[in-house]
Amino acid sequence: MTELVALTLPIDALVSHPDFHPHHKAGSELTALFRNMWFICGLFRLSSDDKADVISEWQYAAMTRIAAKTPPIVLEEAQDYLTNAIEYNPVFRNDFLQSVSLVVLLNGRYLIVG
Amino acid sequence: MRGTEIRALTPTQVIFLLTMHDLESMRSRGFLPSSLISYFSNEAINKNLSLTACMDSISEKVCDLCLESGICAHNFFQVIRDFVNDTISRKIVQHSISPSLSQELRKLLVASTHRIVKVRELAMKYLQRLVTAFPSLLCDPPFVVALLEVLTLMHRACEGEFTDEVGFDSRRTAQVDFCHFKFTPQHEYSSSRTDIKLELSDSYASRNEILSQLYRYTNKWLEAATARAPIEIQATLQVGTKFLIRTLN
Hints:
The complex is a heterodimer of chains A (about 110) and B (about 250). In chain A, helix 1 (about 1-15) crosses helix 3. Chain A is built from five helices and no strands. Chain A has about 110 residues and is mainly alpha-helical. Helices cover about 60% and strands about 10% of the residues of chain B. Chain B has helices spanning about 5, 10-30, 45, 50-75, 100-110, 115-135, 140-165, 205-230, 230-249; strands at about 165-170, 175-185, 190, 195-200. Chain B has a two-stranded antiparallel ribbon. In chain B, strands 3-4 form a two-stranded antiparallel sheet. At the A-B interface, helix 2, helix 3, helix 4 and helix 5 of A face helix 2, helix 3 and helix 4 of B.
């Protein structure tokens, strides 16, 4: 997980370029990359604003800057989005999905109900 | 939120919802509300009622967050004070919102005319909440011009019911001559004065409903804003009207 956290810095540096505007008319490939990145962050709670999750202020600030430059991750024209992009997304590998799924499910349901 | 809806979710769907919550919370704190609408633009997602019920709850929370951030940060307005002379000092307060927020409001406005009902309902609800909480948003000339332009385009789109061709196609077969009319509505409407482009449904009933709702809300917003700041609103409308007249010529 520390490797994932370390990746925040170069991504933040990349999107901070004033002439890089991925949030305007991004292609489907770039959108998929951003989407998968955010899915990983959601899975490991790297983008959480909950004080119970271990995330530093600088990291949250960096994630906020990346969020501002992220294109919309759900595309209107994407076919079978629920199946292809969510249910059978290769990013959700079975091994770590099983280990974190209980925590994520509890976290998610608390979040939605709360 | 009923427990049955949450129980029906798969782990990957829960991760999707967590992602939506985290990402849109960050964006709403940065006054970037328009991306929330896109989550409801996909047909496959909209068909899953349990998922969309949870997404609705998250949308409400994200909208509340944006409003709270706006109230706390006062980030909407830049106050410019201009002192006239040494003996009589007069503060002239001009209101303007940041260009990025102005653009976000325009995106929400365009989304309020979307073909998908869920998208336009959410966009209008979000816009209504923002403008009701901060009526001075109507002091932003680009937003007011966009409002007038969208109303004009929607009016033109509704008139298309009576003017859109209705093409005429006649064929002759061995048995009978027949002719039929082709229904060819125009779907795209764009403004040459601003960078607004609408892609509308071909249902004229739907277009009329969108137009009447937008007209009703615009009236309500302008009335409320005029009651609070009549001079500023009048000035904004004059700036907007001058811009539209200038671009016509």
